[in-house]
Amino acid sequence: AASPSKSYNITLLPGDGIGPEVISVAKNALQLVASIEGFKVAFEEMPMGGAALDAVGVPLPDETLNSAKKSDATLLGAIGGYKWDKNEKHLKPETGLLQLREGLQVFANLRPATVLPQLVDASTLKKEVAEGVDLMVVRELTGGIYFGKPRGFSTNENGQEIGFNTEVYAAYEIDRIARIAFETARKRRGKLCSVDKANVLEASMLWRKIVTALASEYPDVELSHMYVDNAAMQLVRNPKQFDTIVTNNIFGDILSDEASMITGSIGMLPSASLGAAGPGLFEPIHGSAPDIAGQDKANPLATMLSAAMLLKYGLGEEKAAQRIEAAVLDTLNRGFRTGDIHSAGHKLVGCKEMGEEVLKSIDSKT
Ligand code: ATP
Ligand code: MG
Q1: What radius of gyration, in Å, describes the C-alpha atoms of the chain?
Q2: 92 is catalytic
Q3: Which residues pair with 113 in a beta bridge?
Q4: Which among 11, 97, 174, 241 could bridge 210 via Cys, Cβ 3.0 to 4.6 Å?
Q5: What is the ipTM of this complex?
Q6: Nearest-CA residue for atom 2 of ligand 1
Q7: Set 54, 62, 121, 229: catalytic member
Q8: 69 touches 11 (CB < 8 A)
Q9: Among 22, 260, 266, which residue has the most ligand 1 atoms within 8 Å of its CB, making it the best to mutate?
Q10: Closest protein CA for atom 13 of ligand 1
Q11: What number of other Cβ atoms are within 10 A of residue 98's Cβ?
Q12: Would you put residue 294 in left (φ > 0), alpha (ψ -120 to 50) or beta?
């Protein structure tokens, strides 16, 4: 008799703007690879962001957060738009996203930056430098200077206005992000570069000490350290030297944006936010793109690749993840391009058609 197949619950948060378009396409891909790999997925679609504000008056309804907490993983489209830009803080779509991250306690943000051979011309760097780049930034997301206290405004002894912030990291916060980074490096090419400013900042000195102490638990991972100023430079000088980068909240904020520009194509970039045990949150790095929303123009591949990260890092279904990744490459190889990545000699398609072509590629490889 066939063994009972595994079954996963996935919360879908389409959100605003192009969110619903790209989520619907990614949902089909998840369904298809699940049936090929022999596991079940059940989707629960919930309101979030501006869509939730309009429907029930809050950007993250309790039912939405509860669904995300109970499920095995959450896939988010995008949130926000001009319509809500003037809202008060607690009524902004973006506040809902912060509440969701906090509610799920996802302290590790994973952002790959991969220069696909098919899209090397989109890179902001010279072809020789960009070709073959395949790196992952693991950013600490819930600590550091963005949250540290004391913070605020005051006056100094000369009566001058001052603004001040504090970078605080507790040992356990560094330990847990470093573990995720070592595990991530292990699933990739086994190289981890920890980025800090340990020559100047105490929080960085502790960071380096704890990351270094963990290395003996991961003998298969090669650990190196780099100061953040040098890392910013090395990322544009020779990004191929990096596999996995782990860094704190503020440095990660800056370096992950820098790394994404190496690829040059915002419509292609996925992300994952992971906690210690609970379900992860997976989303494309682009926003709701209100300028092209509802026109079937959005590139769904960032969301497809986020779905692949969901399978790999969220559910441990690596083969299914690889099927989506391979199909995305195959679809690009067959010449299909949405407007954001289009260039002469390729077939310009919309969001839906791009999605259908990826499904065909998944099918053709089984
Ligand atoms: P955020 O909402 O995070 O602040 P943003 O407003 O800075 O993001 P986006 O909404 O990501 O930026 O859009 C920036 C530009 O990129 C827009 O012109 C948008 O149309 C384009 N863009 C973003 N995502 C996609 C996509 N998936 N496909 C095609 N174009 C996209
Ligand atoms: Mg925006």
Answers
A1: 21
A2: no
A3: 135
A4: 174
A5: 0.94
A6: 287
A7: 229
A8: no
A9: 266
A10: 289
A11: 12
A12: left
